[in-house]
Amino acid sequence: STKDIFYIFNNHGLYYNYYNKDNKLSKRNILISNNTLDYTQFYFSIDKFDKIYGIVSDNAIKIVECENDSDIFLLKETFSFDYEKFGVCFPYIKYMEGTTHMFYYVYSPQFTNSAIIFHQYRNEKGKWVENQIDMVNFNILDKFYIVFNNNIPTIFYLNLVGEYEEVFYSTFIYENLKWSEPKQLTNTQTNKLYFNILNDIDNNLYHVVFSENTQNQYSIKYMNYNIKDDTFIENLSCFLTEPSLCSFPCIILENSTLYIMWVCFEKLYTSFSNDLGSTWSTPICDETSINEDFLRTHVHSNVNEDLIYKDIDLFTTMTNLSILGF
């Protein structure tokens, strides 16, 4: 909330740059000195008191923290596992009202076409509970998504139905500390990659976008759902692109306008909708992406005027972290 920035990135190890409230770089530092670490092995967030915390998985699961008056990360906890037999990818952590939620995929390096989604929950008294949410049976290329409603987490992820990936979801039940039976959300019966989801609380909608196989290429497909009696009801479904090589879709809602961004042939494209996804504009290529390197970035912010960036994926330049696409 003080407008200073931590930019955390991997480059033959895990590093961070600290920018003060005047957007001047005041510190560079290494956080984890593991030159095999990649983007599938770490996740960071921020709590309401501006404490930055993260989870890193290399040869152990590590929780690190940086207090709001500091620019130094400290190792707080370590969870060991047999890293010679198992791998952990796409870890996620959330601090909430004195509790902790951790999620991650666990897989065997010998069988990379299947994994188990694990959840660990620590209550206010410090007691840990572990659950296996589901087993997924395909190569893990991208992360799951966690949505909290009234502090209750729901996980969205891809899993196979026959030979096709579909989006599934499951919700944590605090009464018995178990997860609900996974339910299938999509049923398009086509292969999917790189999905993204947005919970639109004001309109009681979930917006879903993914890369879907069409004619042996990938198009951007958008769907949205209402919730009634804890059941997802599909409202509409449409393609935003012709078949091509579309990947890494991200969705943002700002001032009642939906923006979907994606990568195609190493360029960034955007389409927008002013009617909750019923119609979409013709895709526009971001000119900066033509000449500059850019990357998908996960952003957390406590700055009031940055509320749309509270917890989202978007695209930024690699040099000055300028936001692209809208």
Descriptive notes:
The protein is an all-beta fold and 326 residues long. The protein has a domain at 187-326: 5 Propeller (Tachylectin-2, Chain A). It is built from one helix and 27 strands. The chain has one helix at 287-291, and strands spanning 5-10, 14-19, 25-32, 42-46, 52-57, 60-66, 74-80, 87-96, 99-108, 111-122, 128-136, 145-149, 152-161, 164-173, 178-179, 183-184, 192-200, 205-214, 217-228, 231-239, 246-254, 257-264, 267-273, 284-285, 294-300, 311-317, 323-324. The strands form seven sheets. Strands 12, 13, 14, 15 and 16 form a five-stranded antiparallel beta sheet that branches. It has a four-stranded antiparallel beta sheet with strand order 4-5-6-7, with no helix packed on it. The chain is globular. It starts with a strand and ends with a strand. This is Sialidase domain-containing protein. It comes from Negativicoccus succinicivorans DORA_17_25.
- CATH architecture descriptor name of the domain at 187-326: 5 Propeller
Continuous helix count:
1
- The CATH first-level class of the domain at 187-326 comes to Mainly Beta
Strand content: over 45%
Largest sheet, in brief, is: 5 strands, antiparallel
Give a topology summary.
Blueprint: E1 5-10, E2 14-19, E3 25-32, E4 42-46, E5 52-57, E6 60-66, E7 74-80, E8 87-96, E9 99-108, E10 111-122, E11 128-136, E12 145-149, E13 152-161, E14 164-173, E15 178-179, E16 183-184, E17 192-200, E18 205-214, E19 217-228, E20 231-239, E21 246-254, E22 257-264, E23 267-273, E24 284-285, H1 287-291, E25 294-300, E26 311-317, E27 323-324
Antiparallel strand pairs: 1-2, 2-3, 4-5, 5-6, 6-7, 8-9, 9-10, 10-11, 12-13, 13-14, 14-15, 14-16, 17-18, 18-19, 19-20, 21-22, 22-23, 23-24, 25-26, 26-27
